[in-house]
Amino acid sequence: MDNELKNHYDVIIIGGGITGAGTARDCAMRGLSVLLVERYDFTNGATGRNHGLLHSGARYAVTDQESASECIKENMTLRKIARHCVDETDGLFITLPEDDLNYQATFVEACHKAGIRADIIDPEEAKILEPAVNPTLTGAVRVPDASIDPFRLTIANVVDARLHGAQMLTYHEVTSLIINQGRVEGVKLRDNHTGEEKEAHASLVINAAGIWGTLIAKMAGVTVNMFPAKGALLIFGHRVNNMVINRCRKPANADILVPDDTVCVIGTTSDRVPIEECDHMPVTDEEVEVLISEGEKLAPSLATTRILRAYAGVRPLVASDNDPSGRSISRGIVCLDHETRDGLAGFITITGGKMMTYRMMAEVATDLACKKLNIDKHCETATTPLPGSEEKKSEETLKTYSFAQKAADGRHGTYTKEIKEDDIVDDALVCECEEVSVGEVKYAVDNLHVHNLLNLRRRTRVGMGTCQGELCSCRAANLLCQSESADKEAADLARFVDERWKGMKPVAWGDTLNEAQLTATIYEDLLGLDKVASKEGGME
Amino acid sequence: MKFNTIIIGGGLAGLTAGLALLKAGQKVALVSDGQSALHFASDSFDLLGYDAQGQAVTNPLEAIAGLDATHPYSKVADVAGTAAQAQQLLAEAGVKTTGEAKANHYRLTPIGVVKPTWLTVDDFVTLDKPDTTPWKKVVVANIIGYLDFPTKFIVAGLRKLGVEVALKGFTTPELTEARKSPSEMRATNISHVLTDPAVIADVARQLSEISAGFDAVLLPAVISMKDDANAKLLKQQVKTPLYYVATLPPSIPGVRTQTLLRNRFIAQGGIFLTGDQATGGKIEGDTLKSITTAKLTDAELEADNFVLATGSFMAHGLMANYEKVYEPIMDLDVDYTGAHKDWSEYGVFNAQPYMQFGVATDAQLHVKKGGKVIKNCYAAGAILSGNNRVKMADGAGVDMLTALQAVKNILKK
User: Fold this and answer.
1) A203: helix, coil or strand?
2) I need a surface site. Which of A1, A408, A532, B377 has the fewest CB within 10 A?
3) pLDDT, tens digit, for every residue of B115-165?
């Protein structure tokens, strides 16, 4: 991939989350020359640390009509343009005996006002539709919630932006902004792999760094007051529910259970955290306890389901007051033109919003960018399918797929045909849980900005299954091995095993503890990985 | 059904105890669910690889004398003698090894790391010193498409030892056929293909070709699951000295050891109840009278003595839930501390507290329940508390030596 910087870009986008990737796509589709820079990996922040929920907007209908309307609009759009990332599950908002059933009417009315389909159904029907639901429910409303894969969605945007000429640099951190006479003219960068310093110049810099955008703004000498709200989630070992299950009450802790691929996710909590803690956020015992006890109320069988891991993300909310919970703040989109707001030209911040309203955020930011650059091109991202979603595959096409391609189909959509099987080993399985083949690993390495095992996991799901990377991480490390000494790869493997453990540690009892001991037996006792890999934490 | 001794657990500890009891003329039954940590084993048996500070041990016998009183070895009366007995017992079952308790040698791990060890199965790579090999140039040969042998790591590890290394791939029509099912390329499956003398001859011919002019050829351990006959046959036919290297699990040397010990146990007259699980025990006063199993629903298995060798968490000999750590068959006393957040630590390679958890025993390895000693039930192996086997590399030694000590304690009565 092209790492050579051009002399000048129309826009530099800071941040490799879904907002940055979506903005890069929109800008590139409108003919702008684009450079996206990301200090670590794509999806490293809140994009990769949420429910994976394609909100219908129902959750916000009562408290935040603006967000609710944005959600339902984008919900319908993403079903069309990102078909291969969406699992059209629908969702239920259930009322439990301890909840006020009168809230249901308020809720449904608010949904309808925001344009969200919301059908009251009989609790008995709800139990048939979703056998995992708490059988003591007293009410149920069916809404068009769905499940969406944010990793896949981000990469589809990255791939399309690149197809339209955008350049992407992961592991490139902005160290300062180049400001000249009240105008931002570019960024100073550090290559986080080599330490090399670089400069990139552009007419506009778009700050799409999520919660870290507050720090980018600070570099520019302007203030964007963010409200870092930590949300913790738990992943369960299998897909307990087939529909999204929510509580029909004012949004609270741990009241959404989302089926994602082969697992399900309960979340979230909401607690204000200092910005300095946003890079490392272990999930606390108290959070685990709340998630388990509230989760069981949605689907009682969670009590006996293995918990795979715990993780936490930070919502990039824009602070407006001192709300201690952070829940009454709008999830709405915030696009700041720092020229009119702060007298600093060439700088735009796009923030707030939600993972699933990323496209709308990108559109707003790109509209402003085009206006400033005097470019008269309309946004086409709402109608142009993302790579991987262009066409529905026919039965005939599927028949020609190899075993590995079939497994990869859900992950890469129409791009699956790019996965090779000409080498006799390409079909060999690296990861049995997620059915990732050697060919898919090679495809990801060649095309999807994969430098290490963590990147590979996010692109292919290697190591995401129930075994949490027992053997596949070592197999994959060997495939990624480039250097003569293998020291770098050993350190990468150790970091990967440690990162997996970080998510298991807060829930280390039952089968998760058993699995942890097995992993230690393999990686320490049998392999001796602890003897070669340095213990330094690494950059993620 | 009444036995002299019933053993619960068919791993290294349980089988060792069983063989020693049969040797003493006892009537023995062993209950096993068929799973064993041996499936994740290396090609070696460790006695003590590292001391409490993490320093590599050169003389395990000396270092064991300096261990804490909580370590299971403190309950083994004669470590040197018992270690010799263990090696002898392995040899009698057909697990031929080299090594000695008073001086560790070194094994080569599947990612090319050198670790101190006590006994290594014959025909596997052994090194006298941790930083040098007997060879100038070697070939690492792997079956094309076999992913459980991280060749690039092994090559890098060997190069660090100053060896010139070439990496070569090979296959046969039979192995290529096996590869058509993507999950078939696992060591145990490959070993089924490598039972045909014609295929072995083909592999030998190819290995001879690609290793011509080299001092040694190193091959992943994907042959000879039941005994070492095919591994020997292949070695004899290859012109260059051939050595095996352990792979990612499933472990062929581990499965082979389990198979040979089990076969010996059955051949010596032991009753092997496989695919079954102990579900409970009837304790009267200070005595375990009988146990129940999942399959023998209408019968109780009675014995004068019992050996509990069901392993640690990964073998389900110990279990943990949100509230506590417990022993699932008889709810025996367990040595553990704190709430679940205290059982483990961040930093995957830090010493994890849960590794040392295990059933509480007295100096004679008797288990306890409600603080009271059960005088005819002994624990052996990974279910014991007091050692961190991944940090100290003492797993196989603790398995075999505590099993043999439990047997001595039984026979002494």
Assistant:
1) strand
2) A1
3) 999 999 999 999 999 999 999 999 999 999 999 999 999 999 999 999 999
B296 vs A359 pLDDT, higher one: A359
> Per CATH, which fold does B2-97+260-412 belong to?
FAD/NAD(P)-binding domain (3.50.50)
Nearest alpha carbon to residue B208 among B232, B243, B237: B237
CATH architecture of B125-245: 3-Layer(aba) Sandwich (3.40)
CATH 3.40.50 residue ranges in chain B?
Answer: 125-245
* SS3 assignment, position B312: coil
Mean pLDDT (chain A) is 91
Give A191's DSSP letter: E
Q: Grade residue A429 by pLDDT with cuts at 50, 70 and 90.
A: confident
Q: Which residues of B touch A497 (CB under 8 A)?
A: 348
pLDDT at A534: 59
In chain A, which among 426-455 make CB contacts under 8 A with chain B?
427-430, 432, 437-438
Q: How confident is the model at residue B277 (pLDDT cuts 50, 70, 90)?
A: very high
Distance between A475 CA and the closest CA of chain B, angstroms? 6
Size of interface A-B (CB pairs under 8 A): 163
B310 vs B6: CA distance, rounded Å: 12
CA distance A34 to chain B (A): 38
pLDDT value for B271: 97
**Whether pLDDT at B183 is above 90:** no
Q: Kindly tell me if the per-residue pLDDT of A235 is higher than 70.
A: yes
State the Cα–Cα distance between residues B136 and A512, nearest whole angstrom.
Answer: 45
- Beta-bridged to residue A146, according to DSSP, are A54
A539 pLDDT band, cuts 50/70/90, is very low
For domain A84-148+227-314, which architecture applies? 2-Layer Sandwich (3.30)
Contact A475 B349 (CB under 8 A): no
Query: A536 pLDDT band (50/70/90 cuts)?
Result: very low
Q: Where exactly does CATH 3.50.50.60 map onto chain B?
A: 2-97+260-412
**Chain A: residue nearest B41 by CA?**
A526
Instruction: Please check the confidence at residue B395 and state whether its pLDDT lies above 60.
Output: yes
The pLDDT of residue A320 is 58
pLDDT of residue A324: 46
Q: Where are the domains of chain A?
A: 9-46+151-225+332-372, 84-148+227-314, 395-532
- Any CB–CB contact under 8 A between A510 and chain B? yes
Q: Are the Cβ atoms of B349 and A527 closer than 8 angstroms?
A: no
- Asked whether the beta carbons of residue A471 and residue B249 sit closer than 8 angstroms, the reply is yes
Beta carbons of B322 and A430 less than 8 Å apart: no
SS (H, E, C) B224-269: CCCCCHHHHHHHHHCCCCEEEECCCCCCHHHHHHHHHHHHHHHHCC
Which CATH fold topology does A9-46+151-225+332-372 show? FAD/NAD(P)-binding domain (3.50.50)
pTM of structure? 0.94
Chain A (514-533) residues lying within 8 Å, Cβ to Cβ, of chain B: 514-533
User: Does pLDDT of A44 surpass 60?
Assistant: yes
Q: Which residue of A has its CA nearest to B143?
A: A425
Whole-number Å distance between alpha carbons of A131 and A124: 10
What residues 388-427 of chain A have any CB closer than 8 A to a CB of chain B? 403-404, 424-425, 427
Q: What pLDDT is attached to residue A406? A: 66
Let me know: does B340 contact A530? Beta carbons within 8 Å.
no
Nearest CA distance, B307 vs chain A (angstrom): 23
pLDDT exceeds cutoff 50 at A538: no
ipTM score of the complex? 0.98
End-to-end CA distance of chain B: 22
Between CA A283 and CA A266 the distance in angstroms is 13
CB contacts, 8 Å: A524 with chain B: 349, 390-391
